[in-house]
């Protein structure tokens, strides 16, 4: 197995003096190529802050981040531009950030222009839509409100895929969806791993979803990574009290296990 990303002692503090919040404290983990890893924890545990540091959208207070052997902790300029091609993000309610009066075509073509691929980009777009089970014909001329939550989320995944990333960071990519659509998007994430060999870091508060998709689970509580291991070990033989508590809230999981 080849390591793609390594986080060593990552720490993020917000504010100064009396108002200091240590959102992420001394967190270390690594991701292998073709691995689907889930970060699980309750609201406020620091998951999104960790994700945003990994995405290099937030300065890292201390620690080290290495991507494919290269130190990207304080990457700037060209180095970050390259990093953002290799590492793409899908966020919770991405469409809220976009103009509701733009068709999907316009939304996606804007991203294509960033790539500078011109006509060839259209092919890449179709290909990306295909990976999430959509076609341009179905969705390109629609407006965001004309799509289901599941379609919207899959379009945002396709948008990330157009950059042909090596690592996809999906932060609560399913939280806006009802149960059946949620499984649908989780299956898309699995397919990306299986068919494209992509590494996926999936952030969720729901340990049940982690159980469904992940090869490995990282558990965060109050800024600390309290447990990490294979999904089987973490779900069926949790060592930390906090993991046990998260699992106790999902009784079905125990029954089926
Ligand atoms: N920009 C900021 N300034 C100050 N504090 C922040 C900032 N961003 C996050 N925090 C704090 O850091 C802690 C971790 O927040 P974070 O959003 O990473 O948690 P989370 O596990 O992703 O929660 P959720 O699931 O609700 O998104 C919280 O106490 C939060 O209030």
UniProtKB/TrEMBL annotation:
Residues 5-247 form the ABC transporter domain. GO terms for molecular function: ATP binding. It comes from the Bacteria. The keyword ATP-binding applies. InterPro entries: AAA+_ATPase, ABC_transporter-like_ATP-bd, ABC_transporter-like_CS, P-loop_NTPase. Keywords: ATP-binding, Nucleotide-binding. SMART domains: AAA (SM00382). PROSITE patterns: ABC_TRANSPORTER_1 (PS00211), ABC_TRANSPORTER_2 (PS50893). The keyword Kinase does not apply. It holds the Pfam family ABC_tran. Gene3D superfamilies: P-loop containing nucleotide triphosphate hydrolases. This is Peptide/nickel transport system ATP-binding protein.
